[in-house]
């Protein structure tokens, strides 16, 4: 049925069918961190410092998820392309290799960060007042690294089959459990930030278990089999080559958090670090809808590109550009109009709220045009174009945001850190649009010449 849908259903209907569950999954998934921050910010007596301390751990949390995307977001589109070609055996080999790679990565990340967590958090902008809260949260969270890797890294292999409702459910069960456990552990058992971290890893463990069981069952079009777990370097390198784009986007997000937090601590202090924690949480709220659209549309692009149904591919990426751009404009506009509302979701601290009111509209303003880059990224990854998607991922964050966040404050103080984001968003969106227009026809021609 999924094959018939991906090949034959009208593309607009297929986009709606796949994208809506993916959007809901993204909304649910972001609740893991958002709910933690909302509750942590309201712990009596220490809410402000606890929120800031946990905020300093975000670069590490983002980096952990980045490695899951390296494997999952690289392997799933390639598996979809192989399914479109009718090569189920190779698609299953990719799934098995992805499982093994995620387990190995989780062990390495857990050991490294547990050993180096204190100096890392100090380097990331923690102060003596907030360091303890960050250590408490991270020490517990890292125990669940394997669950995070499997739940995030394998879920795209469900989505790439066109089973977006199932992929959504794997996230839903964990997120709902997290919402229930957070107040129980934080306030009921008086565990504070450790309770928030424990609630998160238990929830991720349940999601991971469901994903593994589903992919091992007959319900999955491609199955997780023991004879595919042995690593094969050509498969792993291919997945990582395509996955390096979403990996870079996540990895550099971690670097940006480090640069932002250390700069804000230097030029502004703890209130600015706390405000940035809230601002980036709101940014996540904006991105989740467009990310869900991307997850829903990419399997359509990948499968039909492999099946040589080019009209459907072109229709799908056009819908991606239009829908993502509209979503970004509308959601960004709402955030810019009501910064106080979003700030008060996380804290009642007037010192932090004053910064959020002033800086949040400025910080997100460039996202009005950022849908262009997201549309291009969606298409390039779906088409298996590793080099172009990698360049776009590097352009915005490595080439633009990080240098701007380091240089601008030297001339205009803390304002320069907040300006780095919108400036880079506009430049990278413009560049992405130009690259897409120049390369899209070449991609189809190159596929036809090499096959």
UniProtKB/TrEMBL annotation:
Membrane topology annotation: Multi-pass membrane protein
CDD domains, sorted: MATE_MepA_like
UniProt keyword terms in alphabetical order: Antibiotic resistance, Cell membrane, Membrane, Transmembrane, Transmembrane helix, Transport
Segment forming the signal sequence: none
InterPro entries: MATE_fam, MATE_MepA-like, MATE_MepA_subfamily, MdtK-like
Location of this chain's protein in the cell: Cell membrane
Principal localisation: membrane
Transmembrane segments: 12-35, 55-81, 93-115, 135-154, 166-189, 195-215, 235-251, 316-342, 362-383, 390-409
UniProt record similarity statement: Belongs to the multi antimicrobial extrusion (MATE) (TC 2.A.66.1) family. MepA subfamily.
Protein name per the record: Multidrug export protein MepA
């Amino acid at each position: 049925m999924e094959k018939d849908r991906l090949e034959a259903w009208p593309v607009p209907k297929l986009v709606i069918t796949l994208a809506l569950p993916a959007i809901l999954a993204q909304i649910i998934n972001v609740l893991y961190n958002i709910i933690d921050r909302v509750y942590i910010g309201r712990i009596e007596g220490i809410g402000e410092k606890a929120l800031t301390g946990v905020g300093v751990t975000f670069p590490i949390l983002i980096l952990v998820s980045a490695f899951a995307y390296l494997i999952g977001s690289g392997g799933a589109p390639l598996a979809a392309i192989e399914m479109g070609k009718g090569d189920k055996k190779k698609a299953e080999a990719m799934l098995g290799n992805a499982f093994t790679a995620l387990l190995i990565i989780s062990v390495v990340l857990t050991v490294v960060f547990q050993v180096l967590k204190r100096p890392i958090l100090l380097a990331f902008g923690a102060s003596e007042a907030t360091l303890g809260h960050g250590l408490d949260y991270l020490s517990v969270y890292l125990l669940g690294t394997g669950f995070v890797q499997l739940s995030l890294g394998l879920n795209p292999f469900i989505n790439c089959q066109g089973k977006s409702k199932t992929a959504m459910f794997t996230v839903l069960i964990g997120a709902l459990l997290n919402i229930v456990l957070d107040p129980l552990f934080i306030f009921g058992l008086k565990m504070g930030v450790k309770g928030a971290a424990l609630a998160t890893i238990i929830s991720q463990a349940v999601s991971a278990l469901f994903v593994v069981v589903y992919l091992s069952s007959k319900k999955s079009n491609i199955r997780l089999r023991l004879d595919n777990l042995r690593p094969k370097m050509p498969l792993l390198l291919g997945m990582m080559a395509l996955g390096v784009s979403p990996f870079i986007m996540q990895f550099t997000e971690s670097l940006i958090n480090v640069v932002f937090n250390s700069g804000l601590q230097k030029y502004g202090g703890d209130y600015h670090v706390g405000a940035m924690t809230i601002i980036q949480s709101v940014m996540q709220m904006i991105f989740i809808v467009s990310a869900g659209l991307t997850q829903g549309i990419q399997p359509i692009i990948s499968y039909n590109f492999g099946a040589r149904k080019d009209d459907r591919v072109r229709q799908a990426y056009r819908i991606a550009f239009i829908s993502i751009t509209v979503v970004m404009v509308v959601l960004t506009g709402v955030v810019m109009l009501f910064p106080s509302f979003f700030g008060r979701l996380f804290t009642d601290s007037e010192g932090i709220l004053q910064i959020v009111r002033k800086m949040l509209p400025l910080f997100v303003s460039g996202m009005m045009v950022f849908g262009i880059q997201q549309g291009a990224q969606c298409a390039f990854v779906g088409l298996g174009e590793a080099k172009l998607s990698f360049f776009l991922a590097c352009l915005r964050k490595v080439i633009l945001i990080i240098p701007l966040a380091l240089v601008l404050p030297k001339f205009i103080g803390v304002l320069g850190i907040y300006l780095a984001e919108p400036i880079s968003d506009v430049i990278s969106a413009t560049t992405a649009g130009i690259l897409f227009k120049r390369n899209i026809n070449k991609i189809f021609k190159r596929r036809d010449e090499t096959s």
